[in-house]
Amino acid sequence: MSTTQIPEIQATVRERLGTRYAARLREEGQLPVVVYGHKKAPLHVSVDFKQLNDLLHDNVHLLKITTDQGTTEACLIKDVQWNHLSSRIIHADLARVDLTEKVTVEVVLEFTGNAVGLKEAGAILEHPVNSIEVECLATNIPQTIVVNVEALEAGQSLSVSNLTLPQGVVAKTEGDTVVASVQVQAEVVEEEATEGGDEPEVIGRPAKEDGEAGDE
Fold first, then answer.
1. Within 10 Å of residue 14's Cβ, how many Cβ atoms?
2. At 215, is the pLDDT very low, low, confident or very high (cuts 50, 70, 90)?
3. Of 69, 172, 202, 216, which one's alpha carbon is 20 to 30 angstroms from that of 156?
């Protein structure tokens, strides 16, 4: 990502702090935000809720904050707080960043393809983790890391060390961490084996055993 591609968001410096004023901002479609780091005093601002929410849904990590006081700073989205229902963002923390420095961030995994192993009865695709930690320049943070699972056979797995990462991006999550696997459910296999071993049903009246009385 070049500096010209970094999303920019307008912010208003907050003169008043506290729960009451934060609630009022949210009612007006604004989101309380704190910008901190790089040995500078924290900056309390408000931004357009929809604009920041859309950037989060697009997996954006780096953005520029331009305030109504004429300052512009590059920031990483570091922490997002949700309401008690986890349905709406109520606060965000942004960390100032130098565009020439390396940063460590969590990047979402994007799974693609249909694993060939899923053709086997009882096979399911599992992905134990949905993101991994990577290190790279602030301007090189990928929005997602693509994980192609097409070649996975039943019983096989993909680990972090198997991923193809963009140039300049290094995985910090342990290389043996499994990100995807095709597992066969044991109970399905056992059920099929049992069904296959059943004797055929005999249709009709069974033969009488010795000494069995006839019809009355």
1. 18
2. very low
3. 172
Do residues 49 and 26 touch, judged by C-beta distance below 8 A?
yes
The secondary element (H helix, E strand) that includes residue 191 is: helix 186-196
Per-residue model confidence as pLDDT tens digits over 8-41: 999 999 988 998 999 999 999 999 999 999 999 9
From the DSSP assignment, how many helices (H) and strands (E) are in the chain?
A: 3, 13
Give the residue carrying structure tokens 């499994």.
178
Round to whole Å and give the CA distance between 205 and 88: 68
Q: Are 58 and 12 in contact (CB under 8 A)?
A: no
More confident residue, 203 or 162: 162
Question: Cα-atom radius of gyration of the chain, to the nearest Å?
Answer: 29
CA nearest 74: which of 144, 21, 143, 4? 4
**Residue type present at position 115:** A
The H or E element that residue 27 is part of is helix 19-27
- Per the model's pLDDT, the better-predicted residue between 12 and 197 turns out to be 12
Q: Determine the 3-state secondary structure of 98 from DSSP.
A: coil
| Residue carrying the six token digits 């704190």 | 34
DSSP 3-state assignment of 162? helix
* Domains detected in the chain: 3-98 (2.40.240.10), 104-195 (2.170.120.20)
pLDDT tens for residues 66-103?
999 999 999 999 999 998 887 889 999 999 999 999 99
Biggest distance spanned by C-alpha atoms of the chain: 107
